[in-house]
Write a structure and sequence with these properties.
Layout lengths: L11 H15 L8 E4 L11 H14 L5 E5 L44 H14 L4 E5 L10 H14 L4 E5 L1 H4 L5 H7 L5 E6 L4 H10 L6 E4 L5 H6 L4 E2 L4 H16 L3 H21 L1 H11 L16 H12 L5
Parallel strand pairs: 1-2, 2-3, 3-4, 4-5, 5-6, 6-7
Helix pairs in contact: 1-2, 3-4, 4-6, 9-10, 10-11
Length: 331
């Protein structure tokens, strides 16, 4: 789901709840809709504070029917996300010096208790997400030092998170945003962890998705397509579902595509998939979150503004976005 938290104390959290009620009432007859994902890539989570992220999950849980799953993105990259927890340890004065060097405690004259590393911050966020109502945590790959994020580092990271998480963990590979594909060998190893239940793969490499399905077939592990643009192809190689940005506006159609695939109506599924490709590209790779939010406004939901540095669409971009939907019969 798109993030609606904007201007602290403003109307957007209420609009978030209105969107959920609209989604669930509109799609009530679509049994394929398993639930909602918040704080994923479309949730603008890198631009939200820790407290805002938790408040979004809290509000969504309050509005969401109990029979619908709530997956919450809990991945953390920055040490600062947990810094407030260590406020009592900070040196006093107008300009405290923070020693964040990779050195033993005491190596810096102004040293204080260091905030947790990204793995520990992710653990803490995952636990907090569970406490406010998330049914499972979707954990994106840490990526800032992507040159060192090899299989061993990522296996260690996810194992630590899964060991300490009170809710199931879903791996999240989104190379368009992170510059990093979660390696297949790491996925296979992690699939054996009892608290790691699946992966959302947004890379679009269908051969890779098929290989992950094949190599994890003996585990209780679900492979989910990360985009509606390759949903049919993913089902064809064994994926069991999808987490799709396009479902924010064309949710019933995405669920229909799933139903056609699962019932073997491949010709009809192909026709529908073709009509979803351009709109999906428009709200993901081409225009991203600004495009998705604008489209939500058109479809009667509340999209709202984006957080800086994301910018609103220009008039020409908005016209091109509309064309991608109208030319496929959706507007």
């Amino acid at each position: 789901m798109c993030d609606k938290l904007w201007c602290r104390g403003g109307r957007s959290l209420g609009e978030h709840k209105s969107n959920i009620r609209f989604f669930t009432s509109t799609w009530e007859s679509v049994a394929s809709l398993a639930g909602f994902v918040v704080q994923g890539s479309n949730g603008e989570f890198p631009f939200l504070t820790s407290s805002e992220r938790l408040e979004v999950v809290t509000r969504v849980r309050q509005a969401l029917p109990r029979d619908k799953l709530l997956l919450a993105g809990s991945g953390c990259e920055s040490l600062a996300l947990s810094l407030l927890r260590y406020a009592p340890c900070l040196p006093q004065g107008p300009s405290p010096v923070l020693c964040l060097l990779p050195s033993p405690t005491g190596a810096c004259k102004e040293d204080f208790l260091l905030p947790p590393a990204a793995t520990q911050a992710t653990v803490e966020m995952t636990v907090s997400m569970a406490q406010v109502g998330a049914d499972a945590a979707m954990v994106v790959t840490p990526c800032y030092y992507h040159g060192r994020m090899n299989s061993a580092a990522l296996i260690h990271h996810y194992t630590k998170v899964a060991d300490l998480s009170p809710i199931p963990v879903v791996l999240y590979s989104v190379p368009a945003n992170t510059g990093l594909d979660l390696p297949v060998d790491a996925v296979v190893t992690l699939s054996q962890h009892p608290n790691i239940v699946g992966i959302k793969d947004s890379g679009g490499d269908v051969t890779r998705i098929g290989l992950i399905v094949h190599k994890t077939r003996r585990q209780d592990f679900q492979v989910l397509a990360g985009s509606a643009g390759f949903l049919l192809a993913s089902y064809a190689v064994g994926a069991v579902g999808g987490v799709c940005a396009l479902a924010n506006v064309l949710g019933a159609q995405v669920c229909q595509l799933e139903r056609l695939c699962l019932t073997g109506q491949w010709e009809d599924a192909q026709k529908l998939q073709h009509r979803l490709i351009e709109p999906n590209t428009a709200v993901t790779r081409r225009f991203g979150i600004p495009g998705l939010k604008k489209t939500m406004d058109w479809f009667g939901y509340y999209g709202g503004p984006c957080r800086a540095p994301l910018r609103e669409l220009s008039a020409d971009q908005e016209e091109a976005l509309r064309l991608d939907f109208t030319s496929n019969g959706w507007l």
